[in-house]
Amino acid sequence: MLGLNKKDASLLLMVAALVAFAPILLNPFPEASALAQFNAGYPDLMQRFVIFGIFAVGFNILFGLTGYLSFGHAAFLGAGSYAGVWMMKLLTVNVIPAILISTVVAGLFSILIGFISLRRSGIYFSILTLAFAQMSFALAASVLTPITGGETGLNLALDDPRILEGGNTTGNIPAPNFFGLEMGDSLQLNVAGWLWTFNVGYYLAGVVLIIAFYTAIRIFRSPFGLMLRAIKSNQHRLGFTGLNTRPYMLACFVISGMYAGLAGGLMVAMDPLAGAERMQWTASGEVVLMTILGGIGTLIGPVLGAGLIKYFENIFSKINSNLLHEWFAFLPDGLEDFVVTIIYPFVGKGWHLTLGLMFMGVIIFLPGGLVELGQRIRRVFSKKDANQHTKPAE
Amino acid sequence: MAKSNFTRRGVLKTGAVAGAGVALPTIFTASSASAYVNEPTGSSVTLGFNVPQTGPYADEGADELRAYMLAVEHLNGEGDGGMLNTFSSKALKGNGILGKKVEYVTGDTQTKPDAARASARSMIEKDGAVMITGGSSSGVAVAVQALCQEAGVIFMAGLTHSNDTTGKDKKANGFRHFFNSYMTGAALAPILANEYGTDRKAYHLTADYNWGYTTEEAVRTSTEAMGWETVAAVKTPLAQTDFSSYVAPVLSSGADVLVLNHYGGNMVNSLTSAVQFGLRASEANGKQFQIVVPLYSRLMAQGAGKNVAGIYGTTGWHWSLENRFGERYTGSNAFVQSFGQKYGFPPSQAAHTVYCQTLLYADACERAGTFNPCGVVEALEDFEFDGLGSGPTLYRGSDHQCFKDALVVKGKENPDSEFDLLEIVDVTPREALVYDPAIFGGELGSCNPGA
Amino acid sequence: MDQIVLQILNGLDKGSAYALIALGLTLIFGTLGVVNFAHGALFMLGAFCAVTLSRILSLSHTILDETKKDFLGNPLKVEVPYVKDWFGEAAGAAIIDWSVPLALLFTVPVMIGIGVIMERGLIKHFYKRPHADQILVTFGLAIVLQEIVKYYFGANQIPMNAPQAFFGSFDFGAMIGMDPGAVIYPYWRIIYFCFAAVLIAGVFAFLQFTTFGMVVRAGMADRETVGLLGINIDRRFTIMFGIAAAVAGLAGVMYTPINPPNYHMGMDFLVISFVVVVVGGMGSLPGAILAGLLLGVLESFASMRQVLEIMPGINQVVIYLAAIIILLTRPRGLMGRKGVMED
Amino acid sequence: MGILEVKDVGKRFGGLQALSDVHLNVMENTCHAIIGPNGAGKSTLLNCLIGKLIPDTGSVMFQGQSVLGRSPFEINQMGISRVFQTPEIFGDLTVMENMLIPILAKRDGAFEMNGWSKLASQKDVNEYAEKMLEDMNLVDKRNMHSASMSRGDKRRLEIAMCLSQDPSLLLLDEPTAGMARADTNNTIDLLKQIKEERDITIAIIEHDMHVVFSLADRITVLAQGTPLVEDTPENIKGHPKVKEAYLGETA
Lengths: 394, 451, 343, 251
Known about the structure:
heterotetramer; C: mainly alpha; D: alpha/beta; 6-stranded mixed sheet
C-alpha cells in the first residue's frame, strides 16, 4: 500500500486508527466517574499529543537515523511559531498559510544552523546546536521584542492588518480557522455517561500527523534513509564508499527542522500565541527525552514518548489534595489521610518528581524505551500463543 | 479534611448515572447548547486556579492557592467569612455564587506562557471552568488573558505588575486587581525624593524583558520629574544568576542610587551582589549610597534575608496595613485573621490579591445575576467598592485596572520573624496614581461569551 | 582601565565557579565516559548541605515575648537556638555565623557518600549504555533530587551569610597599587576564587603525583589496557565519582553566600557547565579550567555598559557566541583530544 | 603506463621523515604488493593514496588525474576502493543493508534525495546485491547483524562491498591481520579468485609474506620511508638488499 511493505502499512493504519479514535480511546472513564480526572480526551491535550508527536518524529529522523543529537531543535519550533503568528497577523487567520510559512521558515533557519553546526560531530555538534538555540531564545526574549513580543509572547491583536480579511478594531479577534471551520469548534457526543469531543483543530493536526508519519516511514525505508543509518553506523566507511556525507546530513537536518517548524505552525494554529520559552534548551531537551523515552530510531516510539510526557504534564499536575481526598473517601478517615499523604508528593506540584522517577524507571528497566515494552508484551503473548498450539520450533 | 468541596464530577455522578438509562446519544456543538461557554447547569460552579506549582515561583503559587481555598470556603459559607463581612457590596450571601456551590480545579503554570495556556485550556475544555484566575508573572497573565478572551471565559489576573496586562495587551474578559509599574513609579518617587533628596543620580539595572522595560520607564519618568538624574540604565539577561559584573562598575559610575528593576530570583541575586559589593556602606557624591527595589514581595525579602534591611520599594498590600493606618483599610485584619488561623502565618500580597479577585468575581456574578462573561464584565466595569483591605477601590471600565492605594515599604532592620521583613513607610493615595488609559495603547475589544 | 581590571577580576571570579563545576563534570566524562546531567544537582546538594548544617546549628526552642505581638495579636514567639544556650550568647552566635565554612567539613563526607552511592547504585550500570540512555537516566535523577530538596526546603531562595568577618568589600585596587576606590571587591568573592584555585590545584596534584591518580589518568586514556593490567579500575572510578561529587558539593557550599541557593540552582548551571566542558575540549581537565575562566571573563566584559551601547544584547549571547567561534576554529575545543565523544 | 603513479612523495611529521622520494608505478590488472618492516611508512603511504593525508612533496596520479587534496568520497568515485586493516563495515546494519550501501552510493553519486524517484530501479539494485552476496557465500547471513559475524565473514563482506562498485583499483591494507590461519587462507583464495575473474588492479600492503607471495605480481619493498627495490616476487626473494633490510631477519 502506498509503496509500503505490509508491516509498515499496518503500522501506518494503526496510527491512523489511533488518531481517528483518540477522542474515544483517551476518554476511557465515564464523565461522571472519579477516575475521569485521568481522561485525556479533551481538545487541547489531544492536539498537544499530535503536535509533539510530529515534533518528535521529525527529531527522530535526525537523531534516530544519523545519531546526531541536536540540543537546539526547539529553536526551529519557535521560529516556525513566530512565522505562523506573523502570517495570521498580516495575511489571514486561515491556518493553511500559517502552517506552510512556519515549515518554510523553519527550513530556512535550519539550513543556516545546520550548515554551520554540521561541520562538527558528536558532542561538539550538540553544543553548537544548543548554543544557536540558546542565542535564539535569549534574543527573542529581549532584544528582538518588537518582532517576537518578548517574554510575553507574540499574539494576535484586534488592530492587526489581516490583509485578506480586512482588519477590524471592534468586537473580537477572529479565531484561526480552516476555510471557515474554526479550530476551536467541537462536536460533543454524549453516550451513556461518556462524553466524547471531536475537535476540528485536533483532526486537522491529526491528518497532518498521519501525513508526517507516512513521510517518515518513506524516509526510513528509502535509500536516503539507509545512507543516514549508515552515517550513524560508520561515517568513516561511508566516505570511502563514495558518498559525501555532508549534503546527506544537511538534508536530514533540514527535513527534521521542517518537521519542527510544522509542529510550531500547528501549535499556533491551535492556539495563536508564540512565546520565546518555546526555544529554550529545556524545550529542546524535552523532545530529546520524548524520543529516548519512546525508543530511539523506531517509528512509533517518539510519538508514544511525546504522548506520555504531555500526559504527565497535563494530567498529573492537576491532581490536588482535594481530589485525592475525594478518591479515597471510601477509606476510614485515618487511613484516608495516610494514603493521601503518601500520594500527594507525587502529584499536583510534585508531578516533576513522578516524571523524573518515570524517566529513570523506563530507562533502567526498558533500555529500548516504550517500544521495547510493547515488544516484550507481544513476545509474552506470542509465547503463550506458541504454547497453546504446541508448534515446533522454527 | 476538605471533603466538602466535591468537584463538578462528584455531583454530576448521580445525575449522569440516572441519565444513562436514557442512553440516547446527545449531540451538541459547543455553540448550540448554551448561551455562553461552560454555563453551569448543575448545582455547582467550577473556578480554575492556575498558579505556578513548579519552578522558582512555586512558593508564591502555593500561597495563592491557600488564599483561593480560603476564598472558596468563605464563598460557600464555611469558616469565619473573612473579608465577606467587611466587603462593601453585600450581594454575596455565603451560599456559593448564585446559589451554586463553588468548586475548583487547580493547574500548574510553570511560569511559562505555553504551559499556563495548556493548563487553562484543560480547565476550560475538560473541567468546565467558567473563570480562570492566578499566575505569578506578567508573561503568563498576558498569555492566559488572551486565551480566556478567545475561549470566552473571565480571567481574573493574579500577581502581574507589567503595564501591558491592562495596557497594550488588555482584553475585555480580563481584570487586574494588582497595581502596576506606572503606579509603582508614581507612589515611590515622592517618598524617595523626601528621603534621599532631589539631586540624586540613579543607576538602573533592568531585567531584559517586558516587565523590566515598563518598570524602568515608570521609575525613571517619575524620579526624573522629581529632579533625579539617570546616569545609566543597563539591561540584564533574564536568565542571569550572578549579577556581580553588572553591580561592580556602579560605585565608580558617579551614581549614588542603584535601582534594581528585577523581580523574584533576579532581584534576590542582584540585591545580594549589590550588598556584597558594599554599596550600602559606601558614599558617593558626598551622600550615603542607596539601593531601591521598585517591586517587593515577601518571598523576595525572605530570599534576600537581611540584605533588604533599609531598602525602599513598593508593594500591593501588606498584612500590617490596617494596624498601621487604621480604618481606611478595613478588611485587612479580617483577612489576616482568617488566613493566619487556618495556615499559621500571615498572607502575602499575592494571597491578598487573588483572594480579592475571587470575591470580586463572585460578587459581580451575583450582581449581574448570571455567570455570562458579558454580564460579569458589565458588573465589574467602573465598580466602586471598599472593605477589601486596600481602601476605596475602583475597577476602571476603560482598561479593567483597579485603582487603590499603593504601599511604599522598606526592609526592616530587626525583623521579628521570617514574615515580618517589611515595614510600611507610607501609603500613596489612589488619586495620585491615576493615569490616562490611552497612554499605553491597546484595545479592550468587546466581551466574549464564547458562544 | 579601572573598569577593565575590575571586569577581569570579576570574570576570573565568575569563571572559577564555572571551572569548578566543569572540572567535576570532565572528571566523570573523562574517567567514566558518562554524560552526567545530574552534576548540577550535585552542586545544588552541596549548597543544601550548607543550608542543612546552618539549620541544625540554629535548632531552636521558642520562648514567648509578652512585650511584642505577632500578626494575629498573640504574644510573639522568639526562637532561641540551642547553641546559644549551651555555649553562651556570643559563642553561639559565632558558631551560627561560621556555619558556611563549617559546612565544608560536613559536606565532604556527605557528598563522597552520595557520589559513591550514585555510582554504585545507578551510574555503574550505564557505562556500556549509549550516551542517550545516560542522559535520560541522569536527567531523571537530577529531577528527582531537585524535587526532594524542593519538598523539604521549598522553592524559594534561602539566604545564607558569609561569616561577619568576611562581609562587605575591600579596596582591591589599592592593594595592587591602583588608585584608591577604583576596584572595590567583596571579600567573599576573593575567598571563593582562592578556594577554587586551591581545590583545582589539589585535584591536579592528586591526579599528577599519586599512584592512584596515575592509574586513573591511564584509565582515562585507555580503559581496557589498564583493566588488562589487573588493576581494579572500577573501584578507582567509583572513588573518582565520589571525588567529583565532593568537588561539586564544595563548590556549592562556597557559592551559597554569593547567591542564595534554591533547588533549581543546579539546572541554572547545567547548560553553562556543559558548554564550558565542551569548549575546553572533551576529556581535558586543563581545557575545562581554561574555558571556564575564558568564558567568565568574556561574560564580564559583555556586561559592561560601554560594550552594550555598541552591541545591545551581546550580554545575552556572548557565551554561546564564543562557544560557536571556538568550536568552529578549533574542532575539538581548546584542548580536546581526538576521538573523545565525537560520534 | 601505470594506473597509479606515485612520484617523489615525501611526508614529514614534526621531526620524523615518514616518507621520502617514494616512486611507485602500479600497472593495470596486476597485483602490486608493498611490503616493509614495521615503521617503514606503509600506512602513511596508503593514507596519502586515499586522500587521508596530503604529502608535503610529490604527486599521486590515478589514471592521469591527481588524487591529492580530494576527499575520500571523490577518490572513491574515481574508481579506488579501500579495504581496511580491521574490517570497516556498518555494524548496526544487516548484511544485506551493508551490501546495498555501496551499490546505491555508486548509482547515486555523492548525493541524491532519492525518496521516490528511483524506486523503479530498486529491484535491480536488490538483485545485484543478492548476487554479490551469493558470490561471497554470504547469502545465508543476509539478515544477520553484521557486527555479530566472524572476522573472516566481515572481511568477505567488506571486500564484496568494495567489489560491488566495480573499482579500477582495490587497495588492501593488511587484509589478513589478526586472522586465524584458516581465515587467512580463505581470504587468499578469495582474492586470487577475484584477480582471475575481474579486470582489476590490486595494491596490497602486507606484513605476512605468505599472503604476499601467493598474490603479488610485483613487489615494492619500503624501508625507512623510501622504496628499496621494486621487482617480481621471484627476484625479490633472492634480493640481497631486501634480505638485509627485511627478510634477513625473518628468513
